[in-house]
Amino acid sequence: MSTELNELFERNRQWAADTETREPGFFSRLLKQQTPQYLWIGCADSRVPANELVDLLPGELFVHRNIANVIVPSDLNALSVIQYAVDALRVTHVIVVGHSNCGGVKAALNNLRVGLVDIWLRHVQDVRNQHRAFLDRLTPERQVDALVELNVLEQARNVCRTTIVEDAWQRGQEVVIHGWVYGLHNGLLEDLRITVSKPQDIEPAYERALAALKQRFVPAETAETAAD
Ligand SMILES: [Zn+2]
User: Fold this and answer.
1) Domain ranges of the chain
2) What is the pLDDT of residue 1?
3) In terms of Cα–Cα distance, which of 4, 65, 18, 2 is closest to 39?
4) pLDDT at residue 86 in the model
5) Where does the chain cross the membrane (predicted)?
6) Can you tell me the mean pLDDT for 174-203?
7) Is pLDDT above 80 for 114?
8) Cα dihedral sign for 149, 41, 155, 166?
9) Taking ligand 1, which is a single-atom ion, which protein residues have CB atoms under 5 Å away?
């Protein structure tokens, strides 16, 4: 057994050579600057590789990933990424991306004990508890998918509420927040339509997206559950 992971270095050399052949001067151009238009905030899950699934090259996507794509105001790491992306790189779009069958969301939903990550997933449990009445109407399998989407809406709203995004809007900088979900089963992204480009849109966009989400999961009971 190789302990040096030679295969990965070999693949890397091949990738670098192929990239340079396809686009001569690719790396020397990137060396000078990166000008991504998008910040991707996604799950750390290995099946959801940000660049690959939107077919973007190095330099085109700024990425932050953690378990269950959570953004909380106490996370210096995530906030630093958002701050650098918005203030220095001046990305136009910040996209929170959840994915179907998310292990983190599933663990949070079912109170599974995994380890240190349990503490992190308390943030997703807060989302679960907030929407408990709605989730209780669904089958266990549908609950996972619903909580994945609810979590995207909550985390996208959390991004909107950071002082970083508030300040950018305040000074007239164009920053649009989005919430998407990725289907592990078909490789497709879906827009949950919480799209926010100014402070006064946060709550209406959130409420509209939440109502649409509930409509998808329990069409007949939307009117009753809208207030959950
Ligand atoms: Zn996940």
Assistant:
1) 1-32, 36-225
2) 64
3) 65
4) 98
5) none
6) 98
7) yes
8) negative
9) 43, 45, 102, 104
